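Quarterly update, task 2.4: flavin mononucleotide-bound model.
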Amino acid sequence: MTVSEAVRQRISTRAFLDEAIPKSELADLLATAQRSPSGGNLQPWKVIAVSGEAKDEIIAIAQRVLAEDPMGPVPGDRPVYPDFKLIDPVYDTRRKRVGEMMYDKIGIPKEDRAARIQWFMHNYRFFGAPVGLFFIIDTRMGHGQWAHMGMFMQTIALLAEERGWGTCMQECWARMRVQLHDHFGLDEHHMVYSGMSIGIPDPNDPVNDIYADRAPQEEVVEFRGF
Ligand SMILES: Cc1cc2nc3c(=O)[nH]c(=O)nc-3n(C[C@H](O)[C@H](O)[C@H](O)COP(=O)(O)O)c2cc1C
């Protein structure tokens, strides 16, 4: 598989087969992903990988939080999304569009908000994946280092692709940042940025048949001096 093929075929996988991923293979993937670049080679990332009972414990934590308020706010000062009222509406349009694509594909209409919320809750079971990754960052890091964390995550996703695995990055876990922080025993300076489900994609689930479109190149690239 070429890099271009991996980039083009990666999608967010939201249904996984009940098949384990050997620890040695995951460790190998993560070791390769550490080759990701970061300013000053800080490597401002830490990963906690959960499987088996450790993953079940996380699911149980999530269920407890969600039972109190399924759609409650993300705690702290690092929201998942910007305030869409303040920025170019194109961003909110893109976000809504991919949401509609997904719910169309799985056949849940807009009016059925309860069913949409119910479906969204699959996030908090890692969509059935055998492994969940949590990305931890030192809160004293600046915006640059957060970007470098993103490079690390994308590298993991592409390496997973090469192995025939699928991934879904999951910032939805921000909802449980406080509980996860305590559960993982992180110190006061570290926080969970995002999760990621990783495993073998279910080829028969229609949700894995969504190829989210992208903005036309003119919207995002300016060529000068060519
Ligand atoms: C940092 C990050 C966090 C994300 N969090 C979630 C999430 O919590 N749940 C989810 O279903 N998708 C999540 N996504 C997936 C995006 O919705 C998806 O990448 C985007 O719609 C483009 O689709 P594609 O990944 O299939 O190309 C996340 C993506 C990124 C990069």
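Highlight for this quarter: The first helix runs from residue 3 to 9.
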